[in-house]
Amino acid sequence: MKVKHIILSISCLLFAFSGYPQVNKEDIRVLFVGFDPQMPMPGDIENNSKINGGMTPERFREDYQTRFPAFENYLKSYFTEVQTVDARNYKVEMSGNYDVTIFDQVIKPWKEETRETGKDGKMKYEPAKYLTEDFDHATIFIGHTSPVMGQSVGTKLDWLCLCLDADAHHLKTEHAIFKGPFPVALTFETKPTPEGIYHYPSGKNIPKEIPMWRVQKEGYLESKGYRVGMVSRGDGFLDSPDAEYISSGVNTKDVGAVAIGRHANFFMWGFSGSPDYMTEEAKQVFANAVVYMKQFKGQKPIARKYNDRIATKDYIDNIIGRLNKESFEDTKTYYEQLNRQMAETVRKLEEKKNKGETLTEMEEMVLKAQSKPMPIPDWEQYVQQISREFFRPEYVNNVGALKQFLRENRKYMFSEPDGFYALQIDEDLKKLGIGNDEKSMFPVCIELLKDDSKSEMARRVLKRYTGMEKTRKEWGQWFEENRDKLFFTETGGYKWLINTIK
To answer: For 57-114, what is each residue's pLDDT tens digit?
Structure first.
């Protein structure tokens, strides 16, 4: 009897200190995909961010033993059925048996990445493929798994920067994940605004201090080698009805960088902390996100973003916002700071090498590639760098004319699907005076199909922004049937698509 009491007492103590509250479990089947510490540790933990998520080798080895069981215990305290599987053993068909799949580590690709030099001398790159186009399972990506696994199937949850720390800001506090079913009382603390925000025009009116919500107990900026979080590009993120911005977070990019967001059946929790590093509030919110995502099982992205370097029209707004002396001086100061930081890094690496210590592959790359300081531009060089394809020498002393040109032509601009931060003016639409994101483009072009002198231009425009070819009668029928469901996406390749979730 005494033994039974001792065991019972120990069990109670373990439960009391487990960190997980007694809650009414949600009837949801969850599959967690991570690194099982019962399996051998993967190789290349020093240089491969797809494996280490930006962690130092020492912290990765420590995390490898605790992270998987921490997630398993945490999830089991909130949901009725939880299954775990090592990422190296995961098969896509497994997700069919669960309501929500959570990826904490990257799975094996079914097709490796390819890099080929074309006849034009340009490098053609295709990312590795992990999921398939028809993958419609409700999914939560944690940190770096989001862009690594999602890019090849066209999610907007792309790789802007592996630089997310521990705090969130600019939250959509009205969103369902902050409401329930597990209760949350968000606690905010006013903290200094991340300096990187002010290097972008969008940060011009952001106060020097902003309210922040603590998501995890430790972030990578504490320089203890912990796993780094991920943010995705905010530009164009909301240009389709299947996407939701929920929160940004402390990072080195602009104020709109996405730390928590959804694209169709894919949800990104950009923060890196495992449950034993999450705050109590974050544990509740993450559990709510699992519940929230269940409803998206069976959906797929409508607007697919295959090219994460495609330029949106926010690019034009950014150019206009930076064409001033204040931004010029800020850029020079920023470059000078980077040069000082890089010089110090190079000095330390050379010192390490001179001592006979072995440098990692990444350190060798840094030493080789960044030994020369970044050139500080003068005003003319700055204007040319900023405006790029729209630059003319006369704009150097008349940026007002450049700004006017950009504003007047913004609505006609588009990018080729494989464009690299490059926009061009659609001269066809400019002649018509209609922007490519204006639905009135369709009736005008359909009418022009009757005009032999303009029908070719009309067909060209319609194909450019839909990818389709039809007769005038077919276009008329198509437009009437879909008029109220059409939306324009820039990130999806400057196309008009049909909202299939209405």
So the answer is: 999 999 999 999 999 999 999 999 999 999 999 999 999 999 999 999 999 999 999 9
Region of residue 495 (left: phi > 0; alpha: psi -120 to 50; beta: else): beta
Given this model, what pLDDT does residue 371 score?
61
How far is residue 13 from each of residues 17, 70, 73, measured CA to CA in Å? 6, 17, 16
**pTM of this structure:** 0.91
pLDDT in tens, 205-262: 999 999 999 999 999 999 899 999 999 999 999 999 999 999 999 999 999 999 999 9
Cβ-contact 432, 454 below 8 angstroms: no
| CA 498 – CA 502 distance, rounded (Å) | 9
Tokens found for residue 393: 């020498």
Angstrom distance (rounded) from CA 215 to CA 279: 6
Query: Looking at this protein, which amino acid is placed at residue 214?
Result: R
Look up tokens 């369709």; give the residue: 442
Q: What angle in degrees, to the nearest 10, is found between the helix axes of 379-387 and 399-409?
A: 0
d(CA 451, CA 447): 8
DSSP 489: E
- For residue 376, how many other CB atoms are within 10 A of its CB? 13
Q: What angle do CA 157, 155, 110 make, to 5 degrees?
A: 110
Angle at 238 between CA 232 and CA 239, to 5 degrees: 120
Mean pLDDT, the chain, rounded, equals 92
Helix residue spans in 269-411 (DSSP H): 280-293, 314-322, 325-354, 361-369, 379-387, 399-409
